[in-house]
User: What shape does this take?
Amino acid sequence: MNAPAPVSLRHRVNQARLRLQASGQRLVIAVPFGWLLLFFLLPFALVLKISFAEFRIGIPPFTDLVTFTDQAYLRVTLAFSNYLRMVEDRQYLVAYLNSLRIAGGSTLIALLIGYPMAYAIARAPKGPRAVLLFLVVLPFWTSFLIRVYAWVGLLKGNGLINAALLSLGIIDQPLLIAGSDWGVHIGIVYSYLPFMILPLYATLEKLDPSLLEAAHDLGCRPWKAFLTVTLPLSMPGVIAGCMLVFIPAVGEFVIPELLGGADTFMIGRVLWNEFFLNRDWPVASAVAVVMLVLLVAPIMLFQHLQSREAPAKTEARP
Amino acid sequence: MTSWRRNGFLITALGFGFAFLYVPIFLLILYSFNGGRLVTVWAGFSTKWYGELLHNEQLLGAAWISLRIAVTTASFATVLGTMAALAMVRFGRFGGRTLFSGMLSAPLVMPEVITGLASLLLFVSMERLLGWPEGRGVTTITIAHITFCTAYVAVVMQARLQDMDRSIEEAAMDLGARPLKVFFVITIPVIAPALVAGWLLSFTLSLDDLVIASFVSGPASSTLPMVVFSSIRLGVSPEINALATLLVVLATVAIAAVGWLQVRQERLSTRLAQGADAD
Assistant: This one.
């Protein structure tokens, strides 16, 4: 008569196990979620908050937005002066425009160098392909600072390139590449080229070669086939690669500092100077907020591509 | 495949591209063996700059700090990044998934000056409110590094988890193994090469970071990139060339090890698959 008992016991054990499994899943989500909320998202709220504070001498070097007056009233003081300064002082506007121009130009150069490389690697036979990919990834693993430094030694007035050109008699005055926008362009393209090649390679490798054969069979010239078939199909890779280069390049500090001139003002450098030289945290925060506003559209585009990539992959699997 | 080799344009593009990527590094390595102090004049082969490196207390101290931070960062970021990747790939929809995936991909492109400033403001506010972390130093650098390295590990692990053949896990599940046991006995060994790759990636990213560390470091916690940077600002020096060469060799060995692990893993699984087919 007590036959149902084990069934219900097993049922209960199963229920408990499912509950445990569900709470385990929640834990796996909650730990990284909580970490990123606290250490990645919350800091941006603080940047926004402090950009409305005023500079003062002390620790911390900014005023409180929320204060209690004598009558225990809450008083919120928002200082817009930091943002007014962005508009009034031309230095900031020039720095923003410089950053966009230099980052945009470098992204274009990286695309022009990276696309043929990615295409060649994607079309290579399997053996060489692995080696070529390895060679693309390797510089990414070696120190970024060291790679920029390598160019400092090459491009300086008394650097290797000038020494070689002078001794060959091609030039009689050292070229001032380091210390100009061209130095920064070279530095950015050199440092970020792997980021351009990898997403391009990923889309080009998936490209069905039979589409190109069909175009060829129908009498399409190779260049026309490239422009009408390959290029449109590789657009997600082009956009992802360009965003991966453009967004960090806008805020780049190390490259303009080491390879640019004293007058190559990019916004990352302005933020750095406001913070480390002037110790003006509120203005540095306002510079960061304006930079983020400029970058929101490209960042959203990049994230959209990232999130579209993931489900497409799982759906493609049987 | 001969058509690939015959395509002059593609071969030229590859040759030019790789020359651009590698010639500066080769010259840097070459000149680290230069006997003279002048970087443009070759004054005979010498390893004396490597010897000087060993006596540079400041560099050695900074390298030790950086190594400690990098090991801690890599270990924490690998765990957090793997959890995040599992959440994204395995658990379907959950509340806040869009926000979560946004916070996982934003650090990949966020300009470092912004992340650095933001992290610093957080640590300062936390210290005022909670009294922790006390001042800034190794702990704050480590926390900031874990945060952005987690995003990189999550990318690597998501790709691996999506490509993974789940039939072995399902078989284990059918035979009555619990999810946690399946994870530790089946999943972890299968994704082990990706775990190693994620760990090494975090390790190198942390070891390499200058900007974020400069914002959140304290008076007695200058990392290796910070010391190198202040020395580079003064000009090119053969000692830094020697240090750079060592770092490049270290990175090459590390990535070659990862590549070897992955190739071995692939061969093993194809052999297993062939064995299963033969049965």
Summary: Chain B has two domains: 22-55+242-266, 59-235. The two ends of chain B are 35 Å apart (CA to CA). Chain B has twelve helices and no strands. Residues 238-278 of chain B form the longest helix (41 residues).
